[in-house]
Design brief:
This protein is mainly α and about 350 residues long. Helices cover about 60% and strands about 0% of the residues.
Length: about 350
């Protein structure tokens, strides 16, 4: 090769475009750990139940958050770091306030908040059961729709892209267990349906498809809760404007049957209001449950979608431990704490609806 050919070859190499770089993961490993530890960080405030559980989760979240903020990483990492740092500061502040006040909350929170009201009739419990089945069906249909839009038609081909509850029913999780929990006194109600079949490798983008399919279910429950709360407020406004002398008790409380005074056909209105209240509380509890990063819940699928590739083999091995983790959460009462935010949001939505309707 002469000198001219050599110069041409060098110029061609210089002009050639650089090889495409693989896109960076949506979140770094530290950001994923921050998201996992944030729910655990609040447990120290319940020191009577967890006496040896210190502030170490909040400290770890703070350290990881500061590390991410000082590094030049993605905008998603910085957002997670800011949220983690805010949570760590909030936990430290709340713990300091309770220590100074000498009033450490220690009782295990209850998802049932009865206040001496009337016990729900069987026909109201039956309506609650139907609301749960419909909510679970919409949850699974949202998974199927999201997978289909992401490029995977497995669920659609299996007939799961439908609101028909029969296509989603799992005998024990959808019928037997919810029925027992519904008609037993006390306790909260939850259930599950047949998992929607998904083939991630058929997604046009595997990461985005996993995230979208996982988020779709909990997004459906959150949307339903907001819908039922809006309908509850609208019904309350209608009742208050039509019957200004009417009074009520339990309208704002999801776990106490509403009682009306001075309202014609009160039983029918009680059934409607209780059905809407059940829609709020059940969907918020389903949201709080499914967002947990425990296999096979939606939160774990979301974690798989945003975790870096180096962590994927570890998450794949963790899939078989989901039932053991879930049982541990139940027996240690940790599940009560993790579901409590959903119950509190349900109470808040009921309160807002009652405030707009000027009913309590």
């Amino acid at each position: 090769m002469n000198e001219e050919e050599t110069e041409m070859a060098v110029s061609d190499l210089a002009a050639a475009p650089p090889p495409p770089l693989s896109p960076p993961p949506p979140l770094s490993r530290s950001a994923v750990w921050i998201l996992v530890l944030i729910p655990v960080a609040f447990i120290p405030m319940f020191r009577a139940t967890f006496p040896h559980f210190g502030l170490w989760p909040a400290a770890i979240v703070a350290i990881l958050s500061l590390r991410l903020l000082t590094a030049s990483l993605s905008a998603a990492d910085r957002a997670v770091a800011r949220a983690g740092l805010g949570v760590a500061i909030a936990v430290a502040a709340l713990t300091a306030v309770t220590l100074l006040a000498g009033d450490l909350p220690g009782s295990v929170p209850s998802l049932v908040m009865e206040q001496g009201g009337k016990t729900s009739d069987w026909w109201i419990k039956g309506a609650t059961f139907l609301v749960l089945i419909c909510s679970i069906s919409l949850h699974e249909c949202a998974h199927a729709a999201s997978a289909w839009y992401s490029g995977d038609s497995t669920a659609k081909d299996a007939g799961r892209l439908t609101l028909n509850p029969i296509r989603h029913v799992e005998l024990f999780g959808t019928i037997i267990l919810p029925a027992i929990l519904t008609f037993l006194p006390g306790g909260f109600v939850f259930g599950w349906a047949k998992p929607v079949p998904v083939s991630p490798f058929r997604f046009r983008n595997i990461r985005r498809g996993r995230v979208a399919t996982s988020v779709a279910g909990v997004a459906a429950n959150l949307t339903l809760a907001l819908f039922f709360a809006s309908a509850l407020g609208a019904i309350g406004i209608i009742l208050h404007s039509s019957h200004p002398d009417m009074t009520s008790q339990g309208f704002m409380n999801p776990w106490r049957q509403v009682e009306f005074a001075g309202l014609p056909a009160a039983s029918a209105w009680v059934l409607l209001v209780e059905t809407l209240k059940a829609g709020v509380s059940l969907n918020m509890i389903l949201f709080s449950l499914n967002i947990l990063p425990v296999p096979p819940l939606d939160g774990f699928g979301l974690l798989e979608g945003i975790a870096p590739r180096a962590v994927q083999p570890l998450l794949a091995r963790a899939r078989g431990l989901g039932m053991f983790v879930f049982l541990a959460l139940i027996f240690t009462k940790a599940l009560d704490y993790l579901l409590l935010p959903g119950a509190m949001i349900a109470l808040f939505l009921n309160y807002i609806a009652g405030a707009f309707a000027k009913l309590g």
